[in-house]
User: What shape does this take?
Amino acid sequence: MSWTPNESAQTLFAEDGWLQGTIVSAVAYGINVALYFMCFYLLIRQMTSANYKKHAPFIVYITVSFILGSLFMGSLAEFTQLAFIQDRKYPGGPNMFEQNEFSISADEIGNVAFVLSNWLADALVVWRCMVIYRGCRVPLWIVMIFPSLMLAGSFAMGILWLLQISTSSPYFSGGINFTLPYLSLSLALNITLTIAIVLRLLTYRYRISRVLGPKYGTQYTSVAAMVVESAALYSVFSIAFLVLFALNNPVSETFLEALGQIQMIATLLIVFRVAQGKGWSKSTANSVMSGTKLSQPIRMSDFRVASGFSSKTAVVTSGVASGVTVTRETEVYKTQSDLEFERGSAA
Assistant: This one.
């Protein structure tokens, strides 16, 4: 005997995707809980009266993000419970309940929390891009003008989306469905910044490896560092959702429900790296390039010898990596002809 409800295969598939998305979101939320307390512990331990202005904003940021993520998770659990338990006899089943009752208070709380946390996460990635590109040859305001406009557009589209879903379901709304434009704009912002940050770090990696050797600066330019700094995890997850959503594939629900928690993981990983002292800062380039010794043979054509030193020892400098100068002492050996020339000049 089959106990399968008298629903179409497509409807059952959509309900499967929704329920699995709730489970994936719960797993991601568990990761967020662990990351939040790890970040909070590191920031509190390092905070003193002298640097509290540096650490306090991060503590406030991760706490607000964690609260919003918790509200979203609670709202998702409540809405899922209503659809599959309390109101399971709703005409058309849980799938129709989700589409028709999208704007009830139990779900509206989660939608607002999702948008607010999305704005916070986007703003953090824009800030990381600004930090990493500080000191580049192109003026910073030119580099940041496009991401800033996209971030402002994300704010505007998020407001329009919230206004739309507060009165109707985005699945059946007339005119423009702001779900896809809003999430697409947020995705475009993250993909753009992901590529920009990775390219910048690859450039630093090439310059550092060429001058100092491949072992220097790896904590800032490794593959793992690039993935974390650029929030690539969220970008990949967003692409999967938007492709499936555009194709009207019910599996998109699985990615949509977990999207907010995945983005929170990406942002907490960035804060965790910063709290560990591994995150790229405005002084990283100088500290990496000037705090280590040259590990490759020195070509005299690349240096200029400073005056005012003995005939055997001189200070040489090499211009590398965005104008950063590496200075060290080296031995300067004179040939026999040079010595004879000096003796003749002295005579």
